Here is the input.
Amino acid sequence: MQRVLFGDNQFFGINHMSDEKARAQAMRFQSLRAILDVLEAAYDEGIKAFMCTTHERVAGVCDYFRDHADRFPDYVFYPCMPYAHKYANAVTEHGMLEALRRFLPEEGALGALVRGGVSVARKDVEGIAKLLIDAEMKMFAGLRTPVIFLQNIVTDLLLGLGFKDAFGIFADHVRARYGAEPGFITMNLPLLLDTLEALGIDNPIVCANINKIGFRMSGGIAKYEELLAARRFRAIAMSVFASGAISPREAVDYVCGLEGVQAIVFGASSIANIRQTNRLINERWGAAAGGAA
Amino acid sequence: MGISHHAIVNAHPDVRLAAVCDSTQYVLDVLNKYTGVKCYGDYRRMIDAEELDCVVVSTPSRTHGEIVGYALEHDLHVFCEKPFVLDPQEGERLVRLARERNRVTQVGYHYRFVGAFREAKRLLAAGALGSIHHVRAEAYGPVALRPKGSTWRTARSEGGGCLYDYASHAIDLVNYLVAPPIAVGGTVLNKIFSRDVEDEVYATLHFAGGASGQLAVNWSDESYRRMTTKVSVWGSNGRISADRQECQTYLRERVAALPDVDAGWTVRYTTDLTPPVWFYLRGEEYSAQIDYFIDGVKRGRAENVNSFESALATDQVVQLLLRDAEAPRTGSSELHVARPPRGRGGFLGSLKRKFAG
Here is the structure.
């Protein structure tokens, strides 16, 4: 696993501190070229992994990296699925069943459609989930995706419902079909770790908010620190800067100083910020941080 | 049923989720098969059969009244999704019933649990702005973007539409931060894409004491990624603007009751205004409101920031808006564009300003 991952919130109008800032970013990254420029700059700084939602606009990024494999021979994608707004909006508009039907693959293999129909009728969540995962993964065909993540909105919904089998279904399918490691994004690290352990998912890759002010660390910052030190899992820290509430050096010092954090994902819009953050991390973790852990 | 309510309640350490009820058998079958939760297709049977302390009602708005009534008659504490009820008279009956039975009641106006709006409330309650003279409440988002749409949200008879779904939140925030308006005027309920319900709501609000307000709500605005709600309040001593992310304050002069707020600009962000929750799904406010309700049930706390009574005040404003939108337009100034003279055809016809009354 890469130790420094590039995130994508800034590209899609997501900022946890200011709606105005989020909107300005959405305007700036309206063009694919603007997104690619930032990714290329990050690549040239040694950040060779893009952790991205399966937002429809990521398909354009995938096309570009597929077409320029010679320039980015070692680039990897860490897809995070699903892009939840797409589903949430569809459920609001069409109701749950109709929304589900719309997201099952339509084109191509007739078999998939039939399989989907049968799965729906039998309430076979495993069959439906596999089809939805495959639909989300389509844009990454031919690209390297060593880790595939379940987005926090889904992870945490399943955790709350106690729908535990779903984690196993997801893990098994991404391993079998994509040769990838399953990853789980969560806002509820303590609850997730207990659940995965009970399911026998050993040494899981888990991405959670880890920051000095405890922002969106449900269960409390002390509990997170305790788990990082004591439990066997591969932690990726996100929201390290808490959307800008913590200064870069202070934020990086805190997270890099924690026992158990194996990687950091961060997003930035300017080359200067990418460089600064990457160098701060390298200072703490050593220059090889951009490489594999 | 409210799948996210289900998840949040189920994750609460002090709650045992006894059963869920939904009219979609398919969803129940899947839930039962994979989580083992007990499922009912009829809420009466669930309430009759199970030993419950409280219920969460998250159903199409039209059904709130009868379900809440049944639950109260069976001495349950009730959390009901917003809007409370479509008929304020029914709302009054339910408020009375809950009081008689001494039940804890709450409605899901979750913005009252958002850090930035709570901060605005704190400042306003301390008199930060002096005499308030204007409030603007806005909500925009991408719900109805096409002529189709087949859920209860797009059916007027079910309590769908932008007014009940979106504008009620903005109105409730006005009630929370300032006061319920005593009159409304110039209400516009327009369709943009929907066939059966309005997609935008605009109105002028009038408050006791002479302050005014404006409501601007549009759920067909795709330029917003998700629902975005903002309230701005102007007073003799400055302005406060709050949305889900931040609370911006401008004070002309310091206020003795607020030693932590300087004159000029103060901006506070959600990252420092939001208390942590035990379980996070979609936003702290959703968990915080459920925790507050459960805490109320445990302590038998009577007062509630989102009580039925408070939500009824919001329903009553909705009723005023509905009535005003249907009333004939009178008493306003109108510009009449006369037919252009034959042969000339230009747009500079004669304009006549007509004052009605």
User: Anything to note?
Assistant: The longest helix of chain B spans residues 308-326. DSSP finds ten helices and 15 strands in chain B.
